[in-house]
Specification:
single chain; 129 residues; alpha+beta; five-stranded antiparallel β-sheet; 3 helices
Length: 129
């Protein structure tokens, strides 16, 4: 958890990814995507993890990115972890207000953050870094 607390200061929002029914904002650490925040374009706030996607995606990408940048400054690491055997890593939840908005993966030894490689590759492929 301490590693994620230290790294959280350096998380930044990337260009929003606009899907047909929802918007995701990738969160980066050292040019690698860590996870994505689900964005509610109507309320202009993040959605909690696991909330079904709804919406028109009539979103202002700049505004979405700015909102998530502000949210990241207010976010906090929860004092809890889970271990995911298939990925061989710890998952640390990050919350904003009462919502869990990020799941940050940490190596089994707790020494390094594990990027979302598929998300990073997708963002780079479409020039959204």
């Amino acid at each position: 958890m301490e590693l994620v607390r230290e790294a959280l200061l350096f998380f930044r929002a990337g260009e929003p990814i606009i899907h047909p029914d929802h918007v995701d904002v990738p969160v980066f650490y050292l040019n690698f995507a860590i996870d994505r925040v689900h964005y509610d374009e109507k309320a202009k706030v993040p959605r909690p993890k696991g909330v079904p996607s709804h919406g028109s995606t009539a979103v202002n990408p700049r505004e979405a990115r700015e909102v998530i940048e502000r949210v990241l400054k207010e976010a906090r690491v929860l004092d809890a972890v889970e271990f995911r055997e298939p990925e061989d890593c710890w998952v640390v939840p990050v919350a904003w207000k009462s919502f869990i908005i990020l799941h940050v993966r940490v190596s089994r030894e707790g020494e390094e953050l594990i990027p979302g490689y598929d998300l990073t590759e997708g963002v780079r492929r479409y020039g959204m870094l």
